[in-house]
Amino acid sequence: MTYDVVSVKADGMIKDVIDHIRSTQHDGFPVLRGNKVVGYISARDIIGVHPSVRIEQIMSRHLIVADPDMPITDAARVIFRSGIQKLPVVNEKNELVGIISNADVIRSQIEHVSPGKVYNFMSTLKKLYGIEPALERGNVPVDRLRPTQGKIYQDELEGRMYEIKKGLAEPVIVVKRSGRWIMVDGHHRAIAAKRLGIKNLDAYIIVINDDIKLGLERTAESMNLHSLDDIQVMDYARHPLVAITHRLVPHD
């Protein structure tokens, strides 16, 4: 996120917003009362508004804000699904600490793209456990998959269901060992398949014959994950680190 945030005061005037747009080339600003975020105002909001009107009369009051501890992938989901361009970041006192834009999110994702997830994972297994896993391609039983991720998101789940219906879904990645199927990647696709009544999924299957317990299995045990039914499906806008400002700030 950007720490040096240009903001405006709630008791300021639209003229102040116009001046900020001209001097910074930004198209919108968090609105503060004291140090607390109480709204957001954009260039679109002030079209046709007289410069002497107070900002608090025009600003959007129910904007989405995020916690500094939110993962960048969750911030990206909120920005994309909500159609917003900038996401103010606030602390537990609702004080502005930064802002993240859709451009920031795109940049972060481009910089962290890592193709070859299957082979990278196999390479990691070799280094950690000194084993030689084999790779197969085939179908895996949905009702026997053990998850290693405790939550998924409703919006992405709906997207995966659409892809499966259209025959566009990518394979999931699983580890097969001692008759068990442990998920590495593709939890949204697995839940989507289960909801659609699909019994088997196309998968990259990493076969391990060695008698070892993987870190993935220990993670599943610690989170009490035994089947796909144990995964929590979350609404993206109800992430525990997202809030709506009108719930945080008492009304005047």
What does this structure look like?
This is CBS domain-containing protein. InterPro entries: CBS_dom, CBS_dom_sf, Diverse_CBS-Domain, ParB/Sulfiredoxin_sf, ParB_N, UCP004699_CBS/ParB. The protein is an alpha/beta fold and 252 residues long. 33% of the residues lie in helices and 27% in strands. α3 packs across α4. The protein is elongated and about 75 Å long. The protein starts with 7 loop residues before the first strand and ends with a helix.
Describe the structure concisely:
With 252 residues, this protein is an alpha/beta fold. 33% of the residues lie in helices and 27% in strands.
Which features characterize this protein?
252 residues, alpha/beta, CBS-domain, Conserved hypothetical protein from pyrococcus furiosus pfu- 392566-001, ParB domain, 2 domains, five-stranded mixed β-sheet, three-stranded mixed β-sheet, 9 helices, 33% helix, 27% strand, Diverse_CBS-Domain
Task: Give the topology, please.
Blueprint: E1 8-9, H1 14-24, E2 28-33, E3 36-42, H2 55-58, E4 64-66, H3 72-82, E5 86-90, E6 96-101, H4 102-111, H5 117-129, E7 134-141, E8 145-146, E9 151-153, H6 154-165, E10 172-177, E11 180-185, H7 187-195, E12 200-207, H8 215-222, E13 232-234, E14 242-244, H9 245-248
Parallel strand pairs: 1-2, 8-11, 9-13, 10-12
Antiparallel strand pairs: 2-3, 4-14, 5-6, 7-12, 10-11
Helix pairs in contact: 3-4, 6-7
CATH topology of the largest domain: Conserved hypothetical protein from pyrococcus furiosus pfu- 392566-001, ParB domain
Strand content: 25-35%
Dominant shape: elongated
User: What class would the helix/strand composition place it in?
Assistant: alpha/beta
What is the first-to-last residue Cα distance? 30 Å
Percentage of helical residues?
25-40%
Based on DSSP secondary structure assignment, what is the total number of beta strands? Answer: 14
Strand order of the largest sheet: 7-12-10-11-8
Please state the average pLDDT score. 88
| CATH-defined architecture of the largest domain | Alpha-Beta Complex
